[in-house]
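Z., the sequence and structure:
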Amino acid sequence: MISRVNHLTSSISLPDITTKTPATGSFICIRGSLVTAVKTLITVSLMIILSACDTPTSLEKIQKQQTLHVITRNSPSVYFEGRDGPMGFEYELAKLFANEMDLKLDVKVASTRSQILSALDNDYTNIAIAGMVASEARADRYQYSSAYMETTPIVVYRYGNKRPRSISDLIGKRVAVVSDSYHQEELQNLTTGSPELANHLEWQSLDVETIDLMKRIEDKEIDYAIITSSDLEIHQAYYPRVKKAFEIGKTQQISWYFPGTTDHTLINAVNNFFSRIEDDGTLLDLKERYFGHLGQLNYVGARTYIKHINQRLPKYEELFKKYSDEHNVDWRLMASMGYQESHWRARAVSPTGVRGLMMLTRPTAKEMGIKNRLDPEASIKGGIAYFAKIKARIPDQILEPDRTWLAMAAYNVGYGHLEDARILTEKAGKDPNKWVDVKNFLPLLQKKKYYKQTRYGYARGNEPVIYVQNIRRYYDVLTWMTQPQIDEQAIAQSELENGLIKILPE
């Protein structure tokens, strides 16, 4: 293209231009200044075109660096350091996109949303992957990807206090929102056109995360907060007293943020990526992994569980760690399974005859060499060994985390029934290697129409589904409660060392 344009530039020739003079009526030929001006105009135009062609696009700049720079925040649904390294729904999405584009992923973690927006404003990052709503009020500052999730703004309160029914009930109360969240916009929109709300409704904007607002409600430091419905579902097990009062706005779109200077090339690449993973089921798998088990822990169950973590678990924690290490499984997952089985009661006995901490049947105990099922160490040892044995039977083509979830289901309902459900799943055209599909067919083992087609027959197939979902929720809470706590000074030092504070001033 460049050589062609250059060729055209050098070969341009203009014919002589003739005109009739008003005074004499005679015709004269002019080539001088007008022709030069025209040539100059064309040359300048072509230079502008060439300059534009030479300017790399946003995507080309990233590809040249071979690195995708993203900024995020700590949250169970966004990004966190897990047992085996970085985890989180947003992080997994970014990693998939970077891999698809053959790029290294460079992640910076901000302490607040304010820092995230500062990074975007100053072009210090390519994308913000922070589970943030595509705000209309910010559309002049940032650009957004297409939506990959939806959420709704809600008012939350502390269980036991009077439940507010409308926005006017918030007048005179301690109300808080996260700074630089779209919830400030929601409140401002609600006050528009209402003199009573405009004059009397007040709220604080706090530079914290949503989970911090929920803690403040539970600790009675504030009365109400505006958060998203998805955040409540994710964090409610940690603060079970925090409840939904009412919705205050329409459903909102969660998107990735881009600096305002980003051109369409990067945004289109991200949008195409989201479209592809939605079509091929990858997005659904990720949502199932991080959100499929939410809502399984009610208020009473969550409060009881947290109490038992503090009172009962310490007696058995070292045993769970010891035998989990022997079989290379996460002790917190095994402890969560033990809680689902017996609530960590060493002498638990069910009406069906299973007993002990991990509720072993007599045949299972015999198979694992356990003589006394009521001995807590023997029961934990046998239960973990039995789980590891089942997991080893799961077909090799089934990858994590589905491998673990299917093994847990088999621990509950029996390996044969699990295989029956997988066969029904495959016959229906679904994926027998994905928990998100298999869990829909396990309950069918209760129906004659379906279990008569199977090898092992009837089973209470809804129970393993609830079983797995509960364990996953218990695991989330236990992981969060046993996560090493870093004080603010340590966080600040870490950010300083990584250059985050220097480029993201408060």
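The longest helix spans residues 32-54. The chain is about 50% helix and 15% strand.

Let me know what you think.
H.
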